[in-house]
From TrEMBL:
Subcellular compartments: Cytoplasm
Taxonomic path: Eukaryota, Viridiplantae, Streptophyta, Embryophyta, Tracheophyta
Family: Belongs to the triosephosphate isomerase family.
Name of the protein in question: Triosephosphate isomerase, cytosolic
Transmembrane feature ranges: none
GO CC, one annotated term: cytosol
EC number of the protein: 5.3.1.1
GO biological process: gluconeogenesis; glyceraldehyde-3-phosphate biosynthetic process; glycerol catabolic process; glycolytic process
Catalytic activity entry: D-glyceraldehyde 3-phosphate = dihydroxyacetone phosphate
Species for this entry: Gossypium harknessii
Source organism superkingdom: Eukaryota
């Protein structure tokens, strides 16, 4: 797969456990971090350390205002794919959870 990608700056990776999509069941921060870490490790070994460091790896699956800050605080979680909550006022809080990274 990596050989088919000519410009990694155009790529965003997403981890969406199928059991979490639209179910209200969210991965724990530790679960999300573990998978994102492994994806970044794969990029490092199979593409380059630079691509591993710069590629955004985002999480999707029942992200809400209640769980976004803890998820966003994980070192390898770079953002979210938000479904249902993007249609509610709490979406603002999810967007603001990016502040966790700026303050890290
Ligand atoms: O793109 C959105 C994802 O499929 C997650 O949807 P959800 O936040 O409703 O679980």
């Amino acid at each position: 797969m990596a050989a088919k990608i000519s410009n990694w700056t155009d790529v965003v990776l997403a981890y969406e456990p199928v059991w979490a999509i639209g179910t209200g069941k969210v991965a724990t921060p530790a679960q999300a971090q573990e998978v994102h870490f492994e994806l970044r490790k794969w990029l490092q070994a199979n593409v380059s350390p630079e691509v591993a460091a710069s590629t955004r790896i985002i999480y999707g699956g029942s992200v809400t205002a209640a769980n976004c800050k803890e998820l966003a605080a994980q070192p390898d979680v770079d953002g979210f794919l938000v479904g249902g909550a993007s249609l509610k006022p709490e979406f603002i809080d999810i967007i603001k959870s990016a502040e966790v990274k700026k303050n890290a």
